């Protein structure tokens, strides 16, 4: 029953994540915490993302913005290593509070969908952004939606955003997983749960692809805005539940 629940949860989470450009990990944090325990959250999500991101990257390969990747990925790799290394001894709860309020605030920055841009983003910003967001991801397990407002305000459209984030996320998650393994966080049990979740995630990505191509960019922006709001609320809720 647990294995079936993980598979279905992975499929649903990554379907939503694909049509809203992120948020699967944030949705999974309370679920994995409830089913398995908080100590499993970050490594299992990394394993599932490594299973799903190659499929998502392949499906949206023609839409990847490689100029953004050139700035984003180097920072992400460094940040992912130090975030995963810090996972074993830092208390991330105050970081979660800051991230949660940033995500929730975007709804107001975007004026509830009535504004096209809330701030302008330059390409060079993506190097420090990649480092900071990947570092935080290594600590709290989920920061995917944090990049969305920056990418949208830079000018990426829906397929570009999903494809570009998938390539960067794959490299980031591989770095995190390697670091978790080096510091003894990965076990056979974690691998089994992560692969089951990841197989469901692959199914969710393939189902979501057609829907993403068929929706307007304005609807996609609305989805991402709602996902950021939900992600922020879930991050705050997790603190109170703990």
Summarize the structure.
By secondary structure, the chain is mostly helical. It has helices at about 1-20, 25-35, 40-60, 65-85, 95-110, 125-140, 150-155, 160-180, 190-215, 215-240.
Can you offer a commentary on this structure?
The protein has 242 residues and is mainly α. It has one domain. It has helices at residues 2-19, 24-35, 41-59, 66-86, 93-109, 126-140, 148-154, 158-182, 188-214, 217-241. Helix 1 (2-19) runs parallel beside helix 9 (188-214), helix 3 (41-59) packs parallel to helix 9 (188-214) and helix 4 (66-86) runs parallel beside helix 8. The radius of gyration is 16 Å and the shape is globular. The model has no long low-confidence stretch (mean pLDDT 79).
């Amino acid at each position: 029953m647990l294995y079936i629940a993980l598979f279905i949860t992975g499929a649903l989470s990554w379907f939503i994540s694909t049509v809203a450009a992120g948020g699967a990990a944030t949705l999974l944090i309370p679920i994995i915490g409830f089913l398995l325990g908080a100590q499993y959250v970050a490594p299992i999500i990394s394993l599932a993302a490594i299973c799903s991101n190659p499929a998502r990257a392949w499906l949206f390969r023609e839409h990847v913005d490689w100029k953004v990747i050139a700035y984003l990925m180097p920072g992400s790799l460094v940040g992912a290593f130090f975030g995963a290394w810090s996972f074993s001894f830092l208390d991330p709860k105050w970081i979660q509070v800051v991230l949660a309020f940033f995500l929730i605030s975007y709804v107001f920055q975007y004026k509830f969908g009535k504004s096209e841009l809330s701030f302008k983003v330059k390409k060079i910003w993506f190097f420090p952004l990649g480092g900071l967001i990947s570092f935080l991801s290594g600590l709290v397990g989920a920061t995917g939606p944090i990049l969305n407002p920056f990418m949208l305000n830079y000018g990426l459209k829906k397929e570009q955003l999903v494809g570009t984030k998938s390539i960067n996320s794959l490299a980031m998650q591989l770095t995190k997983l390697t670091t978790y393994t080096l510091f003894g966080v990965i076990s056979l049990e974690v691998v089994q749960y992560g692969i089951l979740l990841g197989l469901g995630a692959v199914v969710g990505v393939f189902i979501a692809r057609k829907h993403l191509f068929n929706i307007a960019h304005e609807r996609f922006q609305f989805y991402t805005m709602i996902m950021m709001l939900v992600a922020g609320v879930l991050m705050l809720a997790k603190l109170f539940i703990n």
